[in-house]
Structures are given as structure tokens and as C-alpha cells.
Amino acid sequence: MSGFNDLLDRRLLFVGGKGGVGKTTTASALGVLASRRGKRCLVVSTDPAHSLGDAFGREIGDRVTALGPDLWGLEIDPDAEAKRHIDNVTAAMKQYAAPEMHAELDRQMRLARMSPGAVEAALLERVAGLILDAEDEYDLLIFDTAPTGHTLRLLTLPEVMAAWTDGLLAHNRRAEELGKVLRHLTPKGSRAEVATPFDDPQEDPFKEMDRRTRRIAETLLRRRRLFHQARRRIADAAHTGFVFVLIPERLPVLETVRAVAVLREFQIPISGAIVNRVLPEDVDGEFLRRRRQQEARYLELIDQELASLSRLRLPLLADDIQGLDALGKVADALEAAGV
Fold first, then answer.
1. Could you read off the pLDDT of 40-80 as tens digits, one per residue?
2. Is the Cβ–Cβ distance between 16 and 274 less than 8 Å?
3. Rounded mean pLDDT, 7-36
């Protein structure tokens, strides 16, 4: 089943799946293929394991690095991003706190950095900024994401953070003044819609606030707008695609089926699934024959469970994939399969 022929015409691709199925290799090969076609492509890793540099056989790190003609790479360090984010928040908060409170504020913010969701929140802000800022420089942005569970939390976090922002505003001690902002940020309609960041307020609701309250509210609104704009692009099927990579084994198949359901619930467009490391037809020997029988069962299960998605298969290769030449062979296979 082929539906990948316009995949690289999008501006934004997420490549995800269970750990160890070949996400990084696939994302890298898609980048190589896009650059061959004259598209300026940036491949971004959000996976703490940072295999992107390994795939290209060179150091990349947290800076945009040229990898070839029309091809660049970037490895975001989630922990460093969280530290930078907390440091910025701490510096901003100290402007509103008495000097004798600074030590306690530092302690609380160190604890906040270790709290659940802190790394994802900081990473989301960096990803959202990249999605918006990279459009002027690149034709295609490919995200090599962390394993499925982390990716789902990242992509659905804007809704969670929208609700959190509303709660923070509602319970602030300056509730009367900040309530104006809350009403402005809340999407029109029922209160049940408060978790959707799709309202794009343009008015200035801060006119009558004092300076400190205004700065707090402006910071919250700026982040809310950033997440809203990025989320709107992610939800646009003409702009964005999510590609699942899996292998014909039980756990990756089950995890992919669950992830597809979650992304559909959040209206994130899914372009298809790439089944990786399929045994070639000409392998021989009793062991490989039995492996292929097992594989055939899971390939059939994939066709049943993911029948609504475009699917393609990539063969298991004899050698490790490292460097541009090896990635070029995977790009050839993707192109031959219809990408």
C-alpha cells in the first residue's frame, strides 16, 4: 500500500516509534532523500540517546551542523534545555521577590527542575520555537523523536500546559486583575474547551495592570501563543506528517497501534507506517525460515491493525547503517518503495 509519494512535500515530519526499531536511521535517510531533491532539510533529534550523530558518523550536538548539501542536523539536549529553561524562569522570578527570598527561590526551582514533566515542558518550548523559526530557513524539518511514550507526552503537552496556565492565572493572588487575562486566553465556548490552545487572541488585555502583573501575564500569554501556533501547524495535514517506524515483532506492533489511537484523538495527522528490517526473500537456513514464518504472522497483523494507514516495508540490511553512503542506500530503498 503506497501513500508516501508526497511525504517530502510537507514542511514538518515527525518520525517516531518504539526504541530500537530504526527511527533515527529512517529519519536520517528521509533527510538524505529530501536533500537529494533539492530541499533544504534540517533533521532534529529530541531523543536523549542522540543516535543522530552516530547515524551520520560524526559529532553533531546542540547546534545546527552541516551534514551535506542542503542537509543539516541538530541534537537537542533535553536536560540542558530544562536547566536553561529553569534558569531563565528563576531569573525572571527574582525580579519580583525580595532579596531575602532568593535562596529559597533557588531551592524551589532546583526541585522544580526534577519534577515530572519539567524536561518535556522545556523541550516542548524549544521544539515549538524551532517549528516556527525554521520555516524561513528550511524547506523541511524532520524530528527524530524519543521512544513513543515520550513523544506522545510531548505532542499532547500543549493542551496540558494550556490548562495549567489557566489554573495558575485563576489562583494567582492577583486574581482579579489576572482574571481578565484568563478570560481572554480561554477559548470561546464551554469551559470544557479550556484545554485547547487553538484560540489565537490578538487584543491587549493588559492595559490596566501594574508593571509586575503585566510582565507575568505577558510571559504566560507569550508561551500560550507559541504553543498555540506550533500546535496549529502540527495539526495541519498539508503541513505536517507523523511517520511510525516499527519492526515485525509483537511489542512494536502493539505499541504502534496504541500510539496511532492517541495521535488521532489529538487530531495529529499520520502519514503512514514504515515496517523496517523485513527479512529478504532469499535468506536460507532453518533458523531464518522459522523467523520468517513468525515475521509473516506479524506482517499480517500489521496489515490488519494498521489497515487505515499507508504502509511500506524496508528490508533488513546485512551491514550497520552509518555515514552518508550507507544512509544513501536506505534513501534508495525508501525511494524505490514510493517515497
1. 999 999 877 778 999 999 999 999 999 999 999 999 988 88
2. no
3. 95
Q: Which of 277, 238, 335, 248 is nearest to 13 (CA)?
A: 238
- Cα-based distances in Å from 148 to 18, 152, 204: 5, 6, 39
Alpha helices in the chain (DSSP H): 23-36, 52-56, 78-94, 102-113, 118-133, 148-171, 175-185, 211-234, 250-265, 286-305, 324-336
Cell triple for 131: 517549528
- At residue 318 the predicted structure's pLDDT band, cuts being 50, 70 and 90, is confident
Backbone angles phi, psi at 55, to 5 degrees: -60, -40
**pTM beyond 0.85:** no
d(CA 179, CA 175): 5
SS3 104: helix
What cell numbers appear for 137 in the block? 530557513
**In 3-state terms, what secondary structure has residue 109?**
helix
Region of poorest pLDDT, from 165-179, 246-260, 298-312: 165-179
8 A C-beta contact, residue 123 and residue 154: yes
Which conformational region is residue 189 in: left (phi greater than 0), alpha (psi within -120 to 50 degrees), or beta?
A: left
Rounded to 5°, angle at Cα 113 from 235 and 76: 50
Confidence of residue 197 (pLDDT cuts 50, 70, 90): very low
d(CA 168, CA 328): 49
> Using one digit for the tens of pLDDT, what is the confidence trace for 70-126?
999 999 988 888 888 788 878 877 777 778 888 888 887 777 777 766 777 788 888
Between CA 217 and CA 166 the distance in angstroms is 11
* Residues 90 and 106 sit within 8 Å (Cβ to Cβ): yes
Phi/psi of residue 65, each to 5°?
Answer: -125, 130
**Residue 246: partners with Cβ closer than 8 Å, 6 or more residues away:** 17, 18, 21, 252, 253, 255, 256, 273, 274, 275, 276, 302
